[in-house]
Amino acid sequence: MQKIKRVFLGLTLPLLLIQSQSVNAIDTEYALKAGFLFNFARYSEWTDTSNAVDHFVLCSPDRDFIDIASTVLSNRKVNNLPISTKTVSLTDADLSQCQVLFITSDTLNQWLNSTLGKLNNIMIVGETEDFITQGGQIRFFLSSGKIRFEVSPEKLTAAQITMSSKVLRLGRVVEL
Question: Where is the secretion signal located (predicted)?
């Protein structure tokens, strides 16, 4: 019996270590992406300010991302508004509360079944290869182990958002 326990422990311990490292890598990646989203928001201007808001709202249908973003962005402000984070479903009612929407690869199927590309006044960011052609405005990608982004200024303008040229220079500009 003791030998079986050792073999079982010997087989499960590496699995648990690999799994915990994977979770930490995802947490780190989500934390970095939350920081990018914060800076995108800080250096952008929403031209339609008809909706009076008392918070700047970052949304995602991915609860894990929102949990990490809440921690990373606590006590931060965009345009003197405190940032709040919100897990949303991809419905018009939920999305009307958002200034930035992050679609993770885990929630992509919900994205494909919606008409988010037609939303105004919401910065839509994702992380899948053809995200911008599907209606998004900014896409994260990995290059040499680092998180990079590409952006479509035309799509941002169509959504009534202007991003600083300083930020645009840091990313890969996509012309459609």
Answer: 1-25
Q: Nearest 5°: phi and psi at 162?
A: -115, 125
Task: Pick left, alpha or beta for residue 81 (phi over 0 → left; psi -120 to 50 → alpha; otherwise beta).
Answer: beta
User: What tokens does 175 get?
Assistant: 């012309």
Residue 8 falls within a domain, yes or no? no
The domain tally of the chain equals 1
Instruction: State the Cα–Cα distance between residues 97 and 58, nearest whole angstrom.
Output: 9
Q: Is residue 111 part of a domain?
A: yes
Structural domain range at position 104 = 30-173
* Phi, psi angle pair for 11, to nearest 5°: -85, -35
The helix or strand, by DSSP H or E, that contains position 45, with its residue range, turns out to be strand 44-46
pTM value is 0.82
Q: What angle do CA 64, 133, 106 make, to 5 degrees?
A: 20
Q: What is the pLDDT of residues 67-104, one digit of tens each?
A: 999 999 999 999 899 999 999 987 778 888 899 999 98
CATH code for the domain of 156:
3.40.50
What is the Cα 29 distance to its own chain's centre? 10
Q: Does residue 2 lie within any of the structural domains?
A: no
